[in-house]
Amino acid sequence: MKRGVFDVLRRGVDNTVANWPLILVRLGETLLFGMIVVLTAIAVVVPFLVSVGIQIADIHTPDDVASAALSMMGKWVLLVWAFVAVLLMLGLFVAIHSFVEAGCARVYVDGERTAGPAVNGLRTRYRAFSMDRWLAGGREGWWVVFWIYNLAWTVGALILLIPLLPTMVLMLVFREQPPVLVATGCIGIAVTVMLMVVVGIVMGMWTSRAITGWAVRRAGARDALAAGWSAIRGDLGRHVLVALAVIVVAFAGSSFFAGFSFFATFGEAMGRHNIFNFFTFPIRIASSILSSAFSAAVSSWFLAAYAALAVEKDT
Question: Which of 26, 125, 150, 181 could tie 296 with a disulfide, CB 3.0–4.6 Å?
Answer without folding.
Answer: 26
